[in-house]
């Protein structure tokens, strides 16, 4: 069995399981805005933000105040026993932000749980078993969520059998194929129809599950026409279209929801987590009431789902995003980031592709001069990621081959911070690829 390994964790202390992977040796003392202040006395510009979790920046004063005030009122009330006000208020605030018709919401703790809840809903609503997912998708680490995931063998190897009823179709990964985007979309839609003809009768398919931007799978925006192709097939065959907005949602891509980059597209189920509460664990599942009504009451939810402090933090997060115009900031600062990365890409042949949407930027490293289909260079990506850490810029890798470096600044990131991040990234590349002289 060949499994792409993740590097071992850095922090070595008694009883901390080696199963945890830690991408940097940093131990946090405290953090504010775009900055993490380490116990080593260094100030790190954080372009990882817990993979988009600390959306309003670390410890935004309004989020901190809301959580502190809520702690003094009630920390936990299980919503299957008594309802609490923060959850009612959060639901009232979330409602107008959701796609048209998705007027019913419930809550869980994590992205994985929300994805599982969506799958259960789709199966219960359609009475069908099969879920169609797309190559490179990441949907979580619980057994069912891992069964839906193909962002790397390390997420599913070693604990088979996985959940049955999951079928994978190609993703229009144009760069990997060496094609233009339209050719890749035509190919992927054609392969989907072939899957329907050969293996999964479309009338036996409960759901499509897709990310608006492949996250852990390599920071690949899903082309709008591909999403629209899924919508058409979903409509024709009564299939539920689930968008996993866990990483791309909540303003990150420069629109409130990632799928909004596909004009006119409305999903049937939306799942969101990460940026929703600026760091507190809470996730949400939204769907039309008629679809929700097909599930047994009590079949969803759990002990901590919709925790009161997390809900209060989510309310403050939504207010901050609106009041500070953070979706627009993500769009503008994202353009600055991508433009800067594209400008420096020409200097380093190992950078094969720069792509992204808003504040989700991916830099794909390939073997220089390999010609034809680009060959992933995970060693280069890992070296750049290490070199950025050495220059006090926190970044992460992703992609099935681990050859993409991703930059995920907070939505509050400033123009100067993006410029500083770009400078540090460029210097890290120069250190790795040997072009340091010109930079001084
Ligand atoms: N879906 C997507 C798109 C994600 O990026 C993630 C987390 N990286 C998950 C689901 C799983 O979320 P969690 O880790 O909160 O279970």
TrEMBL record:
It is an enzyme of class 2 (transferase). It catalyses: 4-aminobutanoate + 2-oxoglutarate = succinate semialdehyde + L-glutamate; (S)-3-amino-2-methylpropanoate + 2-oxoglutarate = 2-methyl-3-oxopropanoate + L-glutamate. InterPro entries: Aminotrans_3, Aminotrans_3_PPA_site, Class-III_PLP-dep_AT, PyrdxlP-dep_Trfase, PyrdxlP-dep_Trfase_major, PyrdxlP-dep_Trfase_small. Its EC number is 2.6.1.19, 2.6.1.22. Its cofactor is pyridoxal 5'-phosphate. Keywords: Aminotransferase, Pyridoxal phosphate, Transferase. Pathway: Amino-acid degradation; 4-aminobutanoate degradation. GO terms for molecular function: (S)-3-amino-2-methylpropionate transaminase activity; 4-aminobutyrate:2-oxoglutarate transaminase activity; identical protein binding; pyridoxal phosphate binding. SUPFAM superfamilies: PLP-dependent transferases (SSF53383). It comes from the Bacteria. CDD domains: OAT_like (cd00610). Belongs to the class-III pyridoxal-phosphate-dependent aminotransferase family. This is (S)-3-amino-2-methylpropionate transaminase. It comes from Gordonia amarae NBRC 15530. The gene is gabT.
